[in-house]
Amino acid sequence: MRILVADPVSAEGVKLLEQHFEVDVRHKLPPEELIRVIPAYDALVVRSETKVTKAVIDAAANLKVIGRAGVGVDNIDVEAATKRGIIVLNAPEGNTVAATEHTMAMMLALARNIPQAHATMKAGEWQRSKFMGVELRGKTLGILGLGRIGAGVAKRAMAMEMTVLAYDPFINADNAKALGVELVELDEVLAAADFLTLHLPLTADTRGLLGQDAFKRMKRGVRIINCARGGIIDEGALAQALQDGIVAGAAIDVFEKEPIDPNNPLLGLNNVVLTPHLGASTAEAQVGVAVDVARGIIAALRGEPVTTAVNLAPIPPHVLEVIQPYFKVAEKMGCLAVHLADGRISVVDVEYNGDISEVDTRLVTTAVLKGMLNPILQEKVNYVNAPGIAKARGIKVKEIKSKETANFANLITVRVRTDKTAHMVAGTLFGKTEGRIVMIDGYRVDVEPEGWLLIGPHIDKPGMVGKVGTILGEHNINIAGMQVGRTEQAGTNIMVMAVESDIPTPVMLRIKAVDGILGAKLVNFNAG
Ligand SMILES: NC(=O)c1ccc[n+]([C@@H]2O[C@H](COP(=O)([O-])OP(=O)(O)OC[C@H]3O[C@@H](n4cnc5c(N)ncnc54)[C@H](O)[C@@H]3O)[C@@H](O)[C@H]2O)c1
Ligand SMILES: O=C(O)[C@H](O)COP(=O)(O)O
């Protein structure tokens, strides 16, 4: 598999990728060149510079994953990627401290005119009276967006003895309270803040959030810091507010257009502090995001779920701890179920029994669908596109949950209904990680879902296994393991044989023709 690293990321991340894949590092590709080369790649790594547009995604015939070595994914057309089943993942935590500290540096630089004073000294001047500053202590800091960076800034601001107010309609009031932050409405923050700092994503809702109107509602003399995203503040309106004295100063790291437009009105003003999108630029942060994104890409290309995928619902760590060991066996159960099912699958019920029923199991259900759809579809089915593909094919998927369990601490049962038949497969973990199939169509078994399995329900009479074994032997097909599963009702059994190679169709037909064999299915668990 081939990876294109299109923006500068730390060598540690690139080395990690190189241990597994062929990696090309090519920075500053013009858009048309990116579109030309992208079909050759399975994964793309970017920061904020490369724009991954719909045109790039449409051209990316083999792309499976886009990794953003950082937080903001506003340079990636996530919707277009999702439609194509391309996983978009980011590295949300690696640069949090760097951006938080940059915000504090910008706030202090703004309060004490440090860049302006520095520039005069470099010019040979000694001007003490020109640069009267203000203190942070006792001032009100308004935070828009109390996520990772917003919360980090809040903690540090409180150490500087500031009062902190925040606007974030999506966070829990108790979390804010635990931080010592008062959550209030936007207008209240705007009216009260002496310093106002932005830590929001750029979305349709936040674009232009601070425009002409908002500046009118601010306390006169407010100082504004934006280390989040250009576009959240209307730069023209900010320049005007700075000139009118509504805003006393602004410290800006991110711009509507990057690299900054030489005509940007902020460049001509003295009461601004500008940095060229340096929030994440620390050695520590760059190693952190590069390694995190490399790990995400490796997982994605192995077909494992990616906890940092932005086009999948996020999974809290305590839930992940419970469900992660089940992904593999769930996928294999899906694979087995689709092989058992003759005909068009219309309903998939996934039942969870035991402790697992108490957490969010949607991703385990997605693993079942992935395992079910991959063997029958040309396109690659993954954790992003599996639910959408199932829906588009008219498959009704339902989860059933019960804490009750009979023989196993946790049990997952997949029931599929087709236009002709109904089948079931149940699976669990032995120990903490060993996936096992423990029931097939009501027959109790204990099967490791690996390699090739021949499954044959048959009449319960002597010689059945011997007859099938003889046919396999005649065709030089080695049997690696065998067991017979029983049901409560006497009369039929199921044989499950692990074989070491594919069984050609004519041989399968001979097996199916054996007197007493009620059907024979061959499952290749390694194909998906
Ligand atoms: N300057 C840099 O180099 C740099 C570095 C890292 C992150 N960033 C940017 O900083 C921003 C924050 O990053 P983070 O890691 O803290 O993200 P985060 O997801 O942890 O926090 C964002 C917060 O914004 C809130 N929010 C979303 N929409 C909102 C709205 N309409 N109104 C109010 N609140 C809203 C969310 O509830 C969330 O709590 C992002 O834009 C990110 O891209 C910039
Ligand atoms: O969203 C982010 O992570 C920051 O804006 C950093 O962007 P960068 O990786 O281009 O420095």
UniProtKB/TrEMBL annotation:
GO biological process, alphabetically ordered: L-serine biosynthetic process
Record keywords, A-Z: Amino-acid biosynthesis, NAD, Oxidoreductase, Serine biosynthesis
Reaction catalysed by this enzyme: (2R)-3-phosphoglycerate + NAD(+) = 3-phosphooxypyruvate + NADH + H(+); (R)-2-hydroxyglutarate + NAD(+) = 2-oxoglutarate + NADH + H(+)
Domain ACT, chain residue ranges per copy: 453-525
Enzyme class (EC, first level): oxidoreductase
Lyase as UniProt keyword: no
Pathway linked to the protein: Amino-acid biosynthesis; L-serine biosynthesis; L-serine from 3-phospho-D-glycerate: step 1/3
Pfam family, one: ACT
SUPFAM superfamilies: ACT-like, Formate/glycerate dehydrogenase catalytic domain-like, NAD(P)-binding Rossmann-fold domains, Serine metabolism enzymes domain
GO molecular function: NAD binding; phosphoglycerate dehydrogenase activity
EC identifiers of the protein: 1.1.1.95
Family: Belongs to the D-isomer specific 2-hydroxyacid dehydrogenase family.
NCBIfam families hit by this protein: PGDH
Purpose: Catalyzes the reversible oxidation of 3-phospho-D-glycerate to 3-phosphonooxypyruvate, the first step of the phosphorylated L-serine biosynthesis pathway. Also catalyzes the reversible oxidation of 2-hydroxyglutarate to 2-oxoglutarate.
Name of the featured protein: D-3-phosphoglycerate dehydrogenase
Organism: Sporolituus thermophilus DSM 23256
